[in-house]
Design brief:
Layout lengths: L23 E4 L8 E2 L12 E5 L7 E4 L7 E2 L5 E5 L10 E8 L5 E10 L7 E7 L50 E6 L12 E9 L18 E7 L4 E2 L11 E2 L4 E9 L7 E6 L6 E11 L2 E12 L1 E9 L6 E7 L3 E2 L3 E7 L6 E9 L4 E9 L7 E8 L3 E8 L3 E9 L4 E10 L2 E8 L6 E8 L4 E8 L1
Parallel strand pairs: 1-4, 2-5, 3-6
Antiparallel strand pairs: 6-9, 7-8, 8-11, 9-10, 10-16, 11-15, 12-13, 12-16, 14-15, 17-18, 18-21, 18-22, 19-20, 19-23, 23-24, 25-26, 26-29, 27-28, 27-30, 30-31
């Protein structure tokens, strides 16, 4: 159990008193601002965690005199928390709560919580933040992360109760290089102090530019990458089931500290773990299905989305050879939705087997290409090899099918010797890719063979 204690190291605090109407008044006028500091060791065995309890619900319970530059509260471990007993005081809107976080390098980066809709019931906001730094082997806290890997949030995300950094649309693993190397905890549901219903708030995240380490795709600074905030949904185990798209001025790059503002969240969408991610990666649509069926001798394309944010329209494109694509038509999107949306479009010029792909355009003009399928109304229920390739690590074959069908997949050399096999592989309605490692393959030409009781397909592949 965490202890409600205050650990104070650093310069002296002024105007400090304890009681429900008391305030902490911090004089930020020196070269280094006064600050509270907790044990920054993230290891549970060395740091059981502690709360700094602010028992005054007013937004001026922490008052800052002068500009914050080096940070007044240094949490730097998920278990080092401020518990601000706000209760339902926020009925007296507007209220603006500010915590001037700081780091080991004496850089301050405030978190601002502006209430727009009051909470239901009584409760506390429980706040903390931490970065990559305490987890490094070069920190004094027994970390195991090599300094070159500080960008990789998966190596220290567990303390925020985050289980992955995957792209929510495709599920592709570890998009840490698209996120800042810091997590924020903003918890309205911590046991013992949980609200019956979370308030609606506007959040402003300041972050130190050093929280974008080398190894990231995103960059920091005045001309850095524009970022948005995301929170991790522990119910669905996803980032991005709801996005918080920023406006043109909602990201502000600075020389030392940058900012993401105007992040509105509330109610059932309020979860505790937050980070900041590349505004353009990923796009705000979660596609759950895309298929083609035959209806009245025409191919009907059907797709569904689980969530959409800022989506403008969908375009269905068609190809005979996977090289040249032409638009079949467009369908307006829902714009913003957290419930399933269903769409359909008929290809009135369908004739024989064709390939279809779905693209989505959002209101900012950004485009993402989603799934590709094959479909036909000629009754052939065709399965064919689309292409083969060597990507440097594996050799792969892509198979198109208008039905679910099972094939044995064999990789042979030109003399017919089996170099690898994968029996009973299901080729789904659409596109299926099967890969073999090229570790034991010499440079030359090989053959993919797909066979079952009714069909044999072959295609050559060049291994470099």
């Amino acid at each position: 159990m965490k202890k409600s204690v205050l650990l104070l190291l650093g310069t002296v605090m002024t105007g400090m008193a304890w009681g429900q109407a008391a305030r902490i008044v911090i004089e930020n006028s020196g070269a280094t601002d006064p600050y509270f500091v907790w044990n920054p060791d993230p290891r549970a065995a060395q740091n059981g965690g502690a709360y700094l309890v602010i028992d005054n619900p007013a937004d001026n319970a922490i008052t800052y005199l002068g500009a914050n530059t080096t940070g007044n509260f240094r949490s730097e471990a998920a278990q080092n928390k401020i518990r601000w007993n706000i209760g339902n005081y926020a009925v007296g809107l507007p209220n603006s709560y500010v915590v001037n976080w700081g780091n080991q390098a004496n850089v301050g980066f405030p978190l601002t919580v502006d209430f727009t809709v009051a909470p239901v019931g009584t409760g506390s906001f429980v706040l903390s933040t931490y970065s990559y730094y305490p987890y490094l082997t070069t920190s004094p806290y027994g970390g195991a992360v090599a300094p070159a890997n500080g960008w990789n949030n998966t190596l220290y995300m567990a303390d925020a109760n985050v289980t992955h950094m995957n792209d929510y649309t495709t599920g592709l693993p570890n998009n840490s290089d698209q996120a800042v190397d810091r997590f924020w905890i903003i918890d309205t549901k911590e046991a013992g102090w949980a609200y019956a219903a979370s308030p609606t708030v506007d959040l402003t995240f300041d972050y130190a530019n050093t929280d974008v380490q080398g190894g990231n795709v995103i960059t920091a600074g005045v001309a850095g990458t524009a970022l948005d905030a995301q929170r991790f949904n522990t119910g669905t185990n996803k980032w991005g089931d709801v996005l918080f798209p920023g406006c043109a001025t909602c990201w502000v790059g600075g020389a030392t500290v940058s900012q993401v503002n105007s992040v509105t969240v509330g109610g059932a969408n309020f979860f505790k773990a937050w980070t900041l991610t590349n505004r353009s990666q990923p796009l705000p649509v979660e596609l759950t299905s895309f298929k083609g069926i035959c209806e009245n001798n025409n191919v009907k394309l059907i797709w569904s989305t689980a969530t959409e944010t800022n989506s403008a329209f969908f375009t269905v494109e068609k190809s005979r050879d996977l090289t040249t694509w032409e638009a079949v038509g467009t369908v307006n999107a829902a714009g913003n939705s957290i419930s399933q949306q269903n769409y359909a479009l008929v290809d009135e010029l369908s004739d024989g087997l064709a390939y279809y792909r779905l693209t989505q355009t959002d209101n900012n003009g950004d485009v993402r290409v989603h799934d590709m399928i094959s479909a036909s109304c000629d009754g052939t229920n065709g399965t064919e090899i689309v292409t083969t390739w060597d990507d440097g690590t594996n050799v792969s074959v892509m198979v198109s099918s208008t039905i679910d069908v099972v094939h044995d997949v064999i990789l042979m050399d030109m003399q017919g010797k089996t170099m690898g096999s994968k029996p009973k592989q299901t080729m789904v309605n659409g596109m299926t890719t099967i890969s073999f490692s090229k570790e034991n393959l010499s440079t030359g030409i090989y053959v993919f063979k797909l066979q079952n009781s009714t069909q044999v397909l072959q295609r050559k592949v060049m291994v470099y």
